[in-house]
Fold each of these.
Amino acid sequence: MARGRKRKAGKRHPCGKLVRPTKGETQAQILATVVEARQRHYGVSAAQARDQRLSSALGRLAFTGAITQQQYEAGQKFGEVYHRHQVVTGLPLPSPSSVAGLMASAGSFGGSGDPPDIDLIERVRRHYDAALRALKDCDHDRDRFPGQSPSRLVYRIVCLDEDAGRLPQADQMNLQHGLDGLGYLFGLVREVPRKVL
């Protein structure tokens, strides 16, 4: 009969010492956790769960076909413009409701400590103002229609990352119109969006 305490189970180094688990998860473990959570939450296959669009409210709308690829790209571009404007001008960012939103808020402009160049601030403001004007035009196009305004919907879904899985039909059409207006501004679509859908 062996003397001493029972040997602990687990992987061992060649010298016989027990391998201690690493404190942080590996990239593969993190991805597996994300894929499993998406499968459970959204009812998709493992292959579909790897689609990056599922990480944001706007992306989930594109994934389900509620918006087109051009509308999705326009929303992403507006999100970048909005984020850059908030960071460069020193305005606070909204607190996003998803992990993807938190990761996006890390930003490419953060952490340098140096004040941005005046020319950069002006360029960012002009770009942001043009996007707001495009959304305001879309609001005027849809002001006699039911539902929320296109600018409000774009802000809530793109900037705040609010879930849009159960949008009423009127709101979905208003959102599409706002994204089409942004797509035209950003050169993603060639035609001016129709005023009446």
Amino acid sequence: MNIAKPAALLVAATALLAGSTAAATAAAPDGTRVTAVERVADQVLPGHPAALKVTRDQVRYDGLTLTKAPRGRLAAKDLDCAYGHLCMVVKGTKFDFYKCQTWTVNNWTGDGPFTNNQTPGTVARFFNQDGSVRWTSTAYQAGTATWNPIFSLRPC
């Protein structure tokens, strides 16, 4: 993902701060197409290795897939979350975690649905900036969460 271009980052930051998900794509000065899902990925997953695969509608990492969430008011029951996965919607993007590791996140704001569809009893942990646990979810659990301030999470 070549989004180290200042203009592309400025477009992404402006759209995210404005809460806009209307624009599906933007272009960097060199003509590189940047999707809305890529912009969110770059904003909320700082310091993670580059994505393995980027398509118009999906960004895939080792252990996480991001897709554009369906439009409209979503509830946890509306998330298509496979068994063994932890899914949530943040800023109009669906996060589907399926690898047990700590994920550093940034710029998570607002409320959104989540589904912890991991093996029964698996505990997902959401952390404050200082590393203390903000809240937990024990599988199976679904509901609505307030994402701010979440600075990291561990699905298992």
Amino acid sequence: MDTDDVVVLGAGGHARALLSLAELNQLRVTALIDRHAVDNEIIMGRPVFPNTELLENSSSFSAVVGIGDNLVRKKQLAEFREFIVQRALKHPSAILDPTARVGYFCQIFAGTFIGPMANISDNVIINTHAVIEHEARVGSHSHISVGAKVLGRANIGDLCFIGAGAVIKDGIRVCSDVTIGANSFVNKNIDVPGVYVGTPVRKVDDK
């Protein structure tokens, strides 16, 4: 399979994690773009540029979005959609049931499991060793963190962040714009946007 040149939008922690995932998907990362870049900055052997002129002035580059924050990632997708690699990036160790649906612009990291008839919308991050069980749904621009579990028929809205190790009980509905803290347990529907933590979860802040 041919290897395509790409740049990564962003240069934080998620961008660094994305470098190897991109290359496992036959994408050669040549540079990163981040408005906070400093002069002559190098990350993992790649130069970091402070603006998007590299993309805007070239027809030979594509991009992937290396930003973990859901809202910023959504904005980057809207602004640079014509350049961004459309297909989902999947680690070879991820297990996807043949009946599962994964949308465009998604990133599926190592050791994840996506079960039968699960539905992952566009621009979603499913991070390392996360589990999306049978018939569960994850809405657009959401981020399922390391080791989190979304159990069977649970429904996660758009722009949600499910923290590391959190568990969403089977059949539970979580509305859009919700953050679930690390290692929390969600055993009841969440119908109001905000930040929820604990076992079981309780609302601690508005968004």
